[in-house]
Amino acid sequence: MKLLTISTLAVVANWAQVAHSIDPAQELLRSHSESSSRSSLLALHKGLITHESISGNEESVGKYLAEYLESKNFTVEIQEVEPRTSSHPPRNNIFAYTGKSRETRTLISSHIDTVPPFWKYERRGDEIWGRGSVDAKGSVATQIIAVEELLAAGKILEGDVSLLYVVGEEVGGEGMRKANDLGLEWETVIFGEPTELKLASGHKGTMGVQISAKGKAGHSGYPELGKSANAMLIPALNALLHAELPSSEKYGNTTLNIGRMEGGVAGNVIPENASALLAIRIADGSPEDVQKIIVDTVEKQGEELDVKFMGGYGPVYIDSDVPGFETIVVNYGTDIPNLKGEHKRYLYGPGTILMAHSDHEHLLVSDLETAVKGYKALIEHSLK
Protein backbone atom coordinates (compact mmCIF):
# COMPACT_ATOMS: atom_id res chain seq x y z
CA MET A 1 0.00 0.00 0.00
CA LYS A 2 2.87 2.34 0.81
CA LEU A 3 4.56 1.58 -2.53
CA LEU A 4 1.36 2.40 -4.44
CA THR A 5 1.13 5.75 -2.71
CA ILE A 6 4.73 6.62 -3.55
CA SER A 7 4.23 5.56 -7.21
CA THR A 8 1.05 7.58 -7.51
CA LEU A 9 2.71 10.65 -6.07
CA ALA A 10 5.60 10.23 -8.50
CA VAL A 11 3.24 10.12 -11.48
CA VAL A 12 1.42 13.23 -10.27
CA ALA A 13 4.70 15.02 -9.74
CA ASN A 14 5.93 14.08 -13.23
CA TRP A 15 2.68 15.23 -14.84
CA ALA A 16 2.87 18.52 -12.94
CA GLN A 17 6.41 19.00 -14.23
CA VAL A 18 5.37 18.29 -17.84
CA ALA A 19 2.34 20.56 -17.57
CA HIS A 20 4.49 23.33 -16.14
CA SER A 21 6.94 22.96 -19.03
CA ILE A 22 4.23 23.72 -21.64
CA ASP A 23 4.44 27.40 -22.50
CA PRO A 24 0.87 28.79 -22.83
CA ALA A 25 2.14 31.42 -25.26
CA GLN A 26 3.61 28.74 -27.52
CA GLU A 27 0.35 26.78 -27.44
CA LEU A 28 -1.63 29.92 -28.31
CA LEU A 29 0.77 30.73 -31.15
CA ARG A 30 0.53 27.20 -32.54
CA SER A 31 -3.26 27.26 -32.35
CA HIS A 32 -3.37 30.66 -34.09
CA SER A 33 -1.01 29.39 -36.82
CA GLU A 34 -3.19 26.34 -37.48
CA SER A 35 -6.33 28.47 -37.60
CA SER A 36 -4.68 30.94 -39.99
CA SER A 37 -3.52 28.12 -42.27
CA ARG A 38 -7.02 26.62 -42.35
CA SER A 39 -8.55 30.00 -43.19
CA SER A 40 -6.06 30.54 -46.02
CA LEU A 41 -6.80 27.09 -47.42
CA LEU A 42 -10.57 27.53 -47.36
CA ALA A 43 -10.36 31.04 -48.80
CA LEU A 44 -8.19 29.92 -51.72
CA HIS A 45 -10.42 26.92 -52.41
CA LYS A 46 -13.51 29.17 -52.36
CA GLY A 47 -11.87 31.71 -54.66
CA LEU A 48 -11.03 29.04 -57.22
CA ILE A 49 -14.55 27.58 -57.23
CA THR A 50 -16.19 31.01 -57.42
CA HIS A 51 -14.53 31.62 -60.81
CA GLU A 52 -16.42 29.64 -63.44
CA SER A 53 -13.88 27.80 -65.57
CA ILE A 54 -15.65 25.31 -67.83
CA SER A 55 -13.15 24.06 -70.41
CA GLY A 56 -12.47 26.88 -72.86
CA ASN A 57 -13.48 29.55 -70.35
CA GLU A 58 -10.48 29.42 -67.99
CA GLU A 59 -9.36 33.03 -68.47
CA SER A 60 -10.90 34.36 -65.25
CA VAL A 61 -9.68 31.64 -62.90
CA GLY A 62 -6.22 31.77 -64.47
CA LYS A 63 -5.99 35.49 -63.78
CA TYR A 64 -7.19 34.97 -60.21
CA LEU A 65 -4.62 32.24 -59.61
CA ALA A 66 -1.75 34.23 -61.12
CA GLU A 67 -2.57 37.24 -58.94
CA TYR A 68 -2.82 35.05 -55.86
CA LEU A 69 0.58 33.44 -56.46
CA GLU A 70 2.21 36.79 -57.15
CA SER A 71 0.77 38.09 -53.85
CA LYS A 72 2.58 35.22 -52.13
CA ASN A 73 5.89 36.26 -53.74
CA PHE A 74 6.03 33.52 -56.37
CA THR A 75 7.54 34.32 -59.75
CA VAL A 76 4.71 33.69 -62.22
CA GLU A 77 4.97 32.89 -65.92
CA ILE A 78 1.88 33.07 -68.13
CA GLN A 79 1.87 30.55 -70.98
CA GLU A 80 -0.71 31.30 -73.63
CA VAL A 81 -2.78 28.35 -74.90
CA GLU A 82 -4.89 28.45 -78.06
CA PRO A 83 -8.57 29.28 -77.39
CA ARG A 84 -10.73 26.19 -77.54
CA THR A 85 -12.78 27.71 -80.39
CA SER A 86 -12.86 31.06 -82.17
CA SER A 87 -15.73 32.12 -79.90
CA HIS A 88 -13.88 31.33 -76.66
CA PRO A 89 -11.75 33.92 -74.81
CA PRO A 90 -7.94 33.71 -74.41
CA ARG A 91 -6.64 31.35 -71.75
CA ASN A 92 -3.34 30.58 -70.10
CA ASN A 93 -1.37 27.97 -68.22
CA ILE A 94 0.07 29.30 -64.96
CA PHE A 95 3.67 28.34 -64.10
CA ALA A 96 5.16 29.55 -60.82
CA TYR A 97 8.31 29.14 -58.72
CA THR A 98 10.27 30.95 -56.03
CA GLY A 99 12.99 33.45 -56.87
CA LYS A 100 14.62 33.05 -60.28
CA SER A 101 14.97 29.26 -60.39
CA ARG A 102 12.45 28.12 -62.98
CA GLU A 103 14.37 24.82 -63.20
CA THR A 104 13.36 22.79 -60.16
CA ARG A 105 13.67 19.21 -58.99
CA THR A 106 9.96 18.67 -58.37
CA LEU A 107 6.88 19.93 -60.20
CA ILE A 108 3.42 20.14 -58.62
CA SER A 109 0.58 20.21 -61.14
CA SER A 110 -3.17 20.01 -61.67
CA HIS A 111 -5.81 21.53 -63.95
CA ILE A 112 -8.02 24.58 -63.54
CA ASP A 113 -10.79 23.74 -66.01
CA THR A 114 -14.01 21.93 -65.12
CA VAL A 115 -16.80 20.09 -66.87
CA PRO A 116 -20.16 21.86 -67.40
CA PRO A 117 -22.47 23.07 -66.04
CA PHE A 118 -21.20 25.64 -63.58
CA TRP A 119 -22.80 25.85 -60.17
CA LYS A 120 -21.71 28.12 -57.40
CA TYR A 121 -19.75 27.60 -54.21
CA GLU A 122 -21.76 26.55 -51.17
CA ARG A 123 -20.72 25.66 -47.63
CA ARG A 124 -22.94 23.13 -45.84
CA GLY A 125 -21.43 22.59 -42.42
CA ASP A 126 -18.24 20.58 -42.97
CA GLU A 127 -19.06 20.03 -46.65
CA ILE A 128 -17.97 22.26 -49.54
CA TRP A 129 -20.13 22.06 -52.66
CA GLY A 130 -19.67 23.53 -56.12
CA ARG A 131 -18.38 22.73 -59.57
CA GLY A 132 -14.69 21.94 -59.35
CA SER A 133 -14.71 21.60 -55.56
CA VAL A 134 -13.39 18.06 -56.09
CA ASP A 135 -12.15 17.98 -59.68
CA ALA A 136 -9.70 19.49 -59.39
CA LYS A 137 -9.73 22.77 -57.45
CA GLY A 138 -9.45 20.82 -54.22
CA SER A 139 -6.08 19.57 -55.46
CA VAL A 140 -4.99 23.00 -56.69
CA ALA A 141 -5.73 24.74 -53.37
CA THR A 142 -4.15 22.07 -51.17
CA GLN A 143 -1.04 21.81 -53.35
CA ILE A 144 -0.41 25.55 -53.13
CA ILE A 145 -0.95 25.73 -49.38
CA ALA A 146 1.34 22.72 -48.90
CA VAL A 147 4.13 24.49 -50.79
CA GLU A 148 3.54 27.75 -48.89
CA GLU A 149 3.80 25.95 -45.54
CA LEU A 150 6.97 24.08 -46.52
CA LEU A 151 8.56 27.33 -47.67
CA ALA A 152 7.58 29.10 -44.45
CA ALA A 153 9.08 26.27 -42.41
CA GLY A 154 12.32 26.36 -44.40
CA LYS A 155 11.84 22.75 -45.50
CA ILE A 156 12.06 23.60 -49.21
CA LEU A 157 14.18 26.23 -50.89
CA GLU A 158 14.47 28.06 -54.18
CA GLY A 159 15.09 25.51 -56.92
CA ASP A 160 13.25 22.69 -55.17
CA VAL A 161 9.63 23.03 -56.29
CA SER A 162 7.61 24.70 -59.05
CA LEU A 163 3.87 24.83 -59.71
CA LEU A 164 2.03 24.29 -63.00
CA TYR A 165 -1.72 24.73 -63.48
CA VAL A 166 -3.08 23.94 -66.91
CA VAL A 167 -6.22 24.46 -68.96
CA GLY A 168 -8.16 22.03 -71.13
CA GLU A 169 -7.60 18.78 -69.22
CA GLU A 170 -11.25 17.80 -69.43
CA VAL A 171 -11.39 18.05 -73.24
CA GLY A 172 -8.17 16.49 -74.48
CA GLY A 173 -5.26 17.92 -72.55
CA GLU A 174 -4.16 20.73 -74.83
CA GLY A 175 -2.92 22.77 -71.86
CA MET A 176 -0.54 20.09 -70.62
CA ARG A 177 0.69 19.33 -74.12
CA LYS A 178 1.47 23.05 -74.48
CA ALA A 179 3.42 22.89 -71.21
CA ASN A 180 6.00 20.73 -72.97
CA ASP A 181 7.08 23.94 -74.70
CA LEU A 182 8.37 25.28 -71.37
CA GLY A 183 11.53 23.31 -72.17
CA LEU A 184 11.93 21.99 -68.64
CA GLU A 185 12.55 18.61 -67.03
CA TRP A 186 11.96 17.43 -63.48
CA GLU A 187 13.01 14.51 -61.33
CA THR A 188 9.44 14.13 -60.00
CA VAL A 189 6.00 15.41 -60.97
CA ILE A 190 3.14 15.26 -58.47
CA PHE A 191 -0.23 15.43 -60.23
CA GLY A 192 -3.43 16.43 -58.47
CA GLU A 193 -6.72 14.60 -59.03
CA PRO A 194 -9.34 13.17 -56.65
CA THR A 195 -7.87 9.88 -55.37
CA GLU A 196 -9.61 9.59 -51.98
CA LEU A 197 -6.35 10.72 -50.32
CA LYS A 198 -4.61 7.59 -51.61
CA LEU A 199 -1.70 7.22 -54.01
CA ALA A 200 -2.83 5.98 -57.41
CA SER A 201 -0.65 3.16 -58.71
CA GLY A 202 -2.07 3.43 -62.22
CA HIS A 203 -5.06 4.33 -64.32
CA LYS A 204 -6.78 2.94 -67.39
CA GLY A 205 -6.03 4.21 -70.85
CA THR A 206 -8.63 5.99 -72.91
CA MET A 207 -9.77 6.44 -76.48
CA GLY A 208 -12.55 8.37 -78.18
CA VAL A 209 -14.55 6.99 -81.14
CA GLN A 210 -17.09 8.58 -83.47
CA ILE A 211 -19.27 6.35 -85.63
CA SER A 212 -21.40 7.93 -88.36
CA ALA A 213 -24.02 6.64 -90.78
CA LYS A 214 -25.25 8.22 -94.02
CA GLY A 215 -28.68 7.09 -95.20
CA LYS A 216 -31.37 8.51 -97.46
CA ALA A 217 -34.14 10.76 -96.21
CA GLY A 218 -37.78 10.12 -97.07
CA HIS A 219 -41.34 9.89 -95.80
CA SER A 220 -41.74 7.42 -92.94
CA GLY A 221 -44.85 6.01 -94.66
CA TYR A 222 -42.66 4.78 -97.53
CA PRO A 223 -39.57 3.26 -95.90
CA GLU A 224 -38.69 1.39 -99.08
CA LEU A 225 -37.89 4.73 -100.74
CA GLY A 226 -35.30 5.79 -98.16
CA LYS A 227 -32.63 4.31 -95.94
CA SER A 228 -32.59 4.93 -92.20
CA ALA A 229 -29.23 6.06 -90.85
CA ASN A 230 -30.48 5.18 -87.37
CA ALA A 231 -31.23 1.62 -88.45
CA MET A 232 -27.71 1.39 -89.86
CA LEU A 233 -26.05 2.69 -86.69
CA ILE A 234 -28.02 1.07 -83.87
CA PRO A 235 -27.13 -2.60 -84.61
CA ALA A 236 -23.45 -1.68 -84.78
CA LEU A 237 -23.61 0.03 -81.39
CA ASN A 238 -25.40 -2.96 -79.90
CA ALA A 239 -22.71 -5.28 -81.26
CA LEU A 240 -19.98 -3.09 -79.75
CA LEU A 241 -21.66 -3.28 -76.34
CA HIS A 242 -21.25 -7.07 -76.52
CA ALA A 243 -17.77 -7.13 -78.07
CA GLU A 244 -14.98 -8.92 -76.20
CA LEU A 245 -12.57 -6.18 -75.14
CA PRO A 246 -9.19 -6.58 -73.36
CA SER A 247 -8.96 -7.02 -69.60
CA SER A 248 -6.19 -7.30 -67.01
CA GLU A 249 -5.80 -8.31 -63.38
CA LYS A 250 -4.73 -4.83 -62.30
CA TYR A 251 -7.14 -2.64 -64.25
CA GLY A 252 -10.13 -4.93 -64.69
CA ASN A 253 -12.24 -4.79 -67.87
CA THR A 254 -12.01 -2.41 -70.77
CA THR A 255 -15.29 -0.51 -70.79
CA LEU A 256 -17.21 1.17 -73.59
CA ASN A 257 -19.62 4.04 -73.04
CA ILE A 258 -22.00 5.29 -75.72
CA GLY A 259 -22.01 8.84 -74.47
CA ARG A 260 -23.96 10.70 -77.13
CA MET A 261 -26.24 9.79 -80.04
CA GLU A 262 -27.77 11.98 -82.73
CA GLY A 263 -29.98 10.97 -85.63
CA GLY A 264 -32.87 12.22 -87.68
CA VAL A 265 -34.95 15.36 -87.61
CA ALA A 266 -38.49 14.15 -86.82
CA GLY A 267 -40.43 11.02 -85.94
CA ASN A 268 -42.12 10.85 -89.34
CA VAL A 269 -38.97 11.40 -91.43
CA ILE A 270 -36.56 8.65 -92.42
CA PRO A 271 -33.26 9.82 -90.86
CA GLU A 272 -30.55 10.66 -93.35
CA ASN A 273 -27.74 11.12 -90.80
CA ALA A 274 -26.88 9.51 -87.49
CA SER A 275 -23.79 9.46 -85.30
CA ALA A 276 -22.57 8.37 -81.90
CA LEU A 277 -19.68 9.36 -79.66
CA LEU A 278 -18.05 6.64 -77.59
CA ALA A 279 -15.54 6.73 -74.74
CA ILE A 280 -13.46 3.62 -74.13
CA ARG A 281 -11.42 3.00 -70.97
CA ILE A 282 -8.61 0.63 -71.89
CA ALA A 283 -7.57 -1.96 -69.30
CA ASP A 284 -4.95 -3.77 -71.34
CA GLY A 285 -3.03 -3.49 -74.58
CA SER A 286 -2.68 -0.52 -76.89
CA PRO A 287 -5.24 1.76 -78.57
CA GLU A 288 -4.38 0.00 -81.83
CA ASP A 289 -5.49 -3.33 -80.35
CA VAL A 290 -8.85 -1.88 -79.39
CA GLN A 291 -9.23 -0.08 -82.71
CA LYS A 292 -8.98 -3.39 -84.56
CA ILE A 293 -11.73 -4.90 -82.42
CA ILE A 294 -13.96 -1.88 -83.04
CA VAL A 295 -13.42 -1.91 -86.81
CA ASP A 296 -13.89 -5.68 -87.13
CA THR A 297 -17.10 -5.57 -85.08
CA VAL A 298 -18.57 -2.70 -87.09
CA GLU A 299 -17.65 -4.27 -90.45
CA LYS A 300 -19.45 -7.50 -89.53
CA GLN A 301 -22.72 -5.56 -89.48
CA GLY A 302 -22.55 -5.16 -93.25
CA GLU A 303 -23.32 -1.43 -93.27
CA GLU A 304 -21.24 1.42 -94.65
CA LEU A 305 -20.37 3.20 -91.43
CA ASP A 306 -17.62 5.74 -90.94
CA VAL A 307 -15.44 5.06 -87.88
CA LYS A 308 -13.17 7.84 -86.63
CA PHE A 309 -10.72 7.40 -83.75
CA MET A 310 -9.80 10.46 -81.68
CA GLY A 311 -6.44 9.74 -80.10
CA GLY A 312 -5.84 7.65 -77.04
CA TYR A 313 -3.33 5.75 -74.92
CA GLY A 314 -3.06 2.47 -73.06
CA PRO A 315 -2.99 1.87 -69.27
CA VAL A 316 -0.73 4.28 -67.39
CA TYR A 317 1.70 3.14 -64.68
CA ILE A 318 2.11 5.59 -61.78
CA ASP A 319 4.69 5.50 -58.99
CA SER A 320 3.33 4.68 -55.52
CA ASP A 321 6.44 3.96 -53.47
CA VAL A 322 5.95 6.51 -50.68
CA PRO A 323 5.56 4.99 -47.18
CA GLY A 324 2.44 5.82 -45.20
CA PHE A 325 -0.02 6.01 -48.11
CA GLU A 326 -2.74 3.58 -49.14
CA THR A 327 -2.84 2.88 -52.88
CA ILE A 328 -5.66 2.79 -55.40
CA VAL A 329 -6.17 2.06 -59.11
CA VAL A 330 -8.44 4.56 -60.89
CA ASN A 331 -10.49 4.22 -64.06
CA TYR A 332 -10.41 7.83 -65.23
CA GLY A 333 -7.85 9.52 -67.45
CA THR A 334 -5.41 12.25 -66.47
CA ASP A 335 -2.87 14.65 -67.94
CA ILE A 336 -0.01 12.34 -66.93
CA PRO A 337 0.55 10.92 -70.46
CA ASN A 338 0.50 14.44 -71.96
CA LEU A 339 3.60 15.65 -70.10
CA LYS A 340 6.78 14.34 -71.71
CA GLY A 341 9.83 13.32 -69.71
CA GLU A 342 11.47 10.56 -67.71
CA HIS A 343 10.34 11.89 -64.34
CA LYS A 344 8.80 9.89 -61.52
CA ARG A 345 5.10 10.60 -61.34
CA TYR A 346 2.65 10.54 -58.45
CA LEU A 347 -1.11 11.03 -58.49
CA TYR A 348 -2.88 12.15 -55.31
CA GLY A 349 -5.64 14.44 -54.14
CA PRO A 350 -8.69 15.06 -51.94
CA GLY A 351 -12.20 13.88 -52.71
CA THR A 352 -13.55 10.97 -54.73
CA ILE A 353 -14.02 10.77 -58.49
CA LEU A 354 -17.53 9.44 -57.77
CA MET A 355 -18.49 13.00 -56.80
CA ALA A 356 -16.70 14.65 -59.73
CA HIS A 357 -18.67 15.54 -62.88
CA SER A 358 -21.90 15.07 -60.90
CA ASP A 359 -24.73 17.34 -59.77
CA HIS A 360 -23.67 16.74 -56.16
CA GLU A 361 -19.93 17.44 -56.37
CA HIS A 362 -18.58 18.13 -52.89
CA LEU A 363 -15.96 17.16 -50.33
CA LEU A 364 -15.21 17.60 -46.63
CA VAL A 365 -13.12 20.36 -45.09
CA SER A 366 -11.13 17.60 -43.38
CA ASP A 367 -10.29 16.13 -46.81
CA LEU A 368 -8.64 19.41 -47.76
CA GLU A 369 -6.69 19.60 -44.52
CA THR A 370 -5.49 16.01 -44.86
CA ALA A 371 -4.49 16.62 -48.48
CA VAL A 372 -2.21 19.48 -47.44
CA LYS A 373 -0.38 17.06 -45.14
CA GLY A 374 -0.28 14.44 -47.88
CA TYR A 375 1.19 16.78 -50.47
CA LYS A 376 3.79 17.98 -47.98
CA ALA A 377 4.83 14.37 -47.37
CA LEU A 378 5.04 13.67 -51.11
CA ILE A 379 7.07 16.80 -51.78
CA GLU A 380 9.53 16.08 -48.99
CA HIS A 381 9.88 12.46 -50.17
CA SER A 382 10.58 13.63 -53.73
CA LEU A 383 13.47 15.80 -52.53
CA LYS A 384 15.28 13.18 -50.46
From TrEMBL:
Family in the record: Belongs to the peptidase M20A family.
Pfam families named in the record: M20_dimer, Peptidase_M20
Highest taxon in the source lineage: Eukaryota
Signal peptide span: 1-21
Cofactor(s) recorded in Swiss-Prot or TrEMBL: Zn(2+)
Domain Peptidase M20 dimerisation, residue spans: 202-304
Protein keywords: Hydrolase, Metal-binding, Signal, Zinc
Record-given protein name: Peptidase M20 dimerisation domain-containing protein
MF (Gene Ontology): hydrolase activity; metal ion binding
